[in-house]
Amino acid sequence: MNALIACIPLFPFLGALLLVPGARHYSPGLVKLLGCGSIALSAICTLMVGWSFLQQPALVVNVQLWNWIRSGALQAGFSLHVDALSITFAFIITFVGALIHIYATEYMQGDEDYARFFACMNLFVGAMLLLVLADNLLLLYLGWEGVGLCSYLLIGFWYKDPANGAAARKAFIVTRIGDTAMAVALFMLFYHLQTLNIAGILQLAAAQWSTGHTTVVLIALLLLGGAVGKSAQLPLQTWLPDAMAGPTPVSALIHAATMVTAGVYLIARLHLLFELSPQVMLLVASIGVITLLLAGCSALVQRDIKKVLAYSTISQIGYMFLALGVGAWHAAIFHFFTHAFFKALLFLGAGAVILAMHHEQDMFKMGGLRKQVPGVYRCFVAGAAALAALPYITSGFYSKDAILWLAWQGPQANTLLWIGGLLGAFLTALYTFRMVFLTFWGPQQHHIHHYPGISIRLPLSILTVLAIVAGFIELPHNLGHVTLFSGFLQNVLPATGVHASSSLEWIAQLLSAVCCLAGIGVAYLLYVKASPALERFTQTGLAQYFTRLWQKGWAFDELYDLLIVRPFMALSRLLRKDAPDKLYTLLGGITIKAHHILAGTQKGLLRWYVLSVLIGAVLILTAILLHLKPTTT
Amino acid sequence: MKETSLQAGLILAGILFCLGLLSLLIRRNFIFMLLSVEIMLNAAGLAFVLAGARWGQPDGQVMFLFILAMAAAEVSVGLALILQLYHQLKSTDSDAATRLKDEP
Predict the structure, then answer these.
(1) Fewest Cβ atoms nearer than 10 Å: which of A313, A361, A513, B73?
(2) Contact A617, B18 (CB under 8 A)
(3) Which residues of A touch B98 (CB under 8 A)?
């Protein structure tokens, strides 16, 4: 058991290690074998470990591998802590990761840096596993920074285009702002509790701090800073749309299914600290709702298919934050679970479309693909239905409904938050089916460049099945009340008690179903039927203004450019010619000048030197004679 | 020794020294410059001998012997250098030997 757990993160690291040195020499077949094989082995190990957890959900396994830092009270080891929460995350990371790796073997076919791609992907999976399996916050932070690094490497994978490099730097720097806040939180936790062990922190925090204590509120706020950076929530969300510069499998794995949910994991893992600070919980929920609405609006008007999916990811993580903020821990993790499947499916489907259109990403130049690539179309529609939460038949409906229900009737419910969430559900359905109709319906505009092969079709099919059925492991009270998922997690995360009648639950479900269907209906009227009334509305000045604003993602980039980047650049330019530097430059200048003057006296003429000696001697003799006192002999 | 003859002798030594110095400054030929240096050395030697005679001490003459020996050594080294310079430059003009100048 312990050896199996240690193997989970070991295989991806080993794969990366083997792929790095031989990047230019390995044959594509060997690269495929190493790249996919390592993740597949890791997924098998996870499944075997997960099996024993399914039988005993209360199981907690600690694996001490070796010491890392041992200095006084600071004891940080390479030790893994596996419980129901971390094994759920590890399952998604390795299983979805393995499918995306298989997909990437075909998607990246013929790329000159084939091995580098798989090395970075393997390294990413390893770092992410370290993050979710770490038993202390320092090791978690190592994984946290590791995934940030891999994200940077993979966004800038096609580094010959400077725009990709800029996107990679932006992602790295923006998330670094959050990481700094998180590092400060770790320092404070260690200062007050003298430990960084997660279980120890959770145990000591409840004893040390009362609810609403200033220190714990500050720590929770700083941790939230780290989480919003990594999970692309307001106000640090600007990096994720640009991160779409990377290859599509990277977007699917890192910027949709796994890494961006690290913030959700962090908050769920340290949920006790957040429960001790209710103000921060409310802030988490508010950030979630505002982000999901802002991102939903931006997704409505994008032209690039990947940008739609990027904003939709921000918006869906907003739902997870909303769930975390209202204390619906299980619902948040459940939405992460289903979201990983359908968002990965949508990204991979979009990748297949992009490949079919010969790297065309503008949806307005697509159309009619329904008949060209029917297999991809079916998978994409399944994913889109799950994202839009099509009632009763998709996984997305059950997870999103659980969040909305608990936001309305849960113990920390807030009607405003719930209404925001409902509005978001409408927006989600609208932009999702706008994307489907624009891409797959309408007249055909291009001929097909590349028909998907088996390596693309297989992961798509598996994910399609999961995107539909993964929701059925957790059904609400009025529909059979299945609690396999929350039952699995209940030993790690506290359950959320609801005391409301099932008729209210029906109303909540019907309302979210209506929102979803209304969104799909409006999308159909706008983009298939082209209803004249709605057409006229979109042509008005106000609508045009908002279209431009939303296309730029509410102009947050301009705002930050004005508030932060430009003052910083001006300050740097000012400091570049600073006063102390001037003094030293002056000293240097004088020395050089003096050197030139003195060097001019060295003429190389013998008689000139004789004259200098003569002048010197005369001067010295004169000085002696002038000061000589007359003496008598 | 009389004061007047000492003063006359010292003036002679000064004139000799100045003559040597002047010719060192205005002559460009190495050999003449070497000769000028010899004249200056002898002027200094004369001043030593005069001073030794004035105080009745042998030191002045001892110093003159030193100067003689040094002048001989200097001439031998100087002549060797002049020969080498002549081989290099095909001239005995001191203004031609400016290769050690610091190039700006």
Answers:
(1) B73
(2) no
(3) 603-605
Question: Is B39 within the bounds of a domain?
Answer: yes
**pLDDT tens digits, A583-621:** 888 999 999 999 988 888 887 788 888 899 999 999 999
Looking at CA atoms only, how far is residue A599 from chain B in angstroms? 6
Q: Report the alpha-carbon distance of residue A370 to residue A378 in Å, rounded.
A: 8
Give the number of domains in chain B.
1
ipTM of the complex: 0.84
Residue recorded with tokens 């079919």 = A356
Q: Are A311 and A242 in contact (CB under 8 A)?
A: no
| Gap between the Cα atoms of A513 and A385, Å rounded | 12
Instruction: State the Cα–Cα distance between residues A458 and A463, nearest whole angstrom.
Output: 9
B38 neighbors B71 (Cβ within 8 angstroms): yes
Q: Does A607 touch chain B (CB under 8 A)?
A: yes
Q: Is residue B97 part of a domain?
A: no
Burial of A517 from C-beta contacts in 10 A (0-12 / 13-18 / 19+): middle
In a domain, B61, yes or no: yes
How many other C-beta atoms can be found within 10 angstroms of the C-beta atom of residue A113?
15
CB nearest to B97's CB, from A599, A600, A606: A606
The secondary structure of residue A362, as a DSSP letter, is: B
Predicted TM-score (pTM) of the model is 0.78
Select from A298, A293, A277, A287 the least CA-distant residue to A323: A287
Phi, psi of A63 (to 5 degrees): -120, 115
Phi and psi for A166 in degrees, rounded to 5?
A: -65, -40
pLDDT tens-place string over residues A474-532? 787 777 777 788 778 887 887 777 766 778 888 888 888 888 889 888 888 888 877 77
Listing DSSP states for B35-102 in one string gives HHHHHHHHHHHHHHHHHHHHHT-SHHHHHHHHHHHHHHHHHHHHHHHHHHHHHHHSS-BGGG--TTS-
In a domain, B79, yes or no: yes
Contacts of residue A339, defined as CB under 8 A and 6 or more positions apart, other chains included, come to A257, A261, A316, A317, A320, A396, A399
Hey, are the CB atoms on B100 and A604 less than 8 Å from each other? yes
**Do the Cβ atoms of B94 and A599 come within 8 Å?**
no
Three-class DSSP category at A27:
coil
User: Largest Cα–Cα distance in chain A?
Assistant: 134
Determine the structural domain holding residue B21 and report its residue range. Answer: 3-92
CATH number for the domain harbouring residue B15:
1.10.287.3510
pLDDT digits 0-9 by tens, A519-556: 888 888 888 877 777 777 777 888 888 888 888 878 88
Search chain B and give the residue with CA nearest A606: B94
Residue A195 CA to residue A16 CA, distance in Å, equals 32
Residue of A596, A602, A607 lying closest to B101 (CB–CB): A602
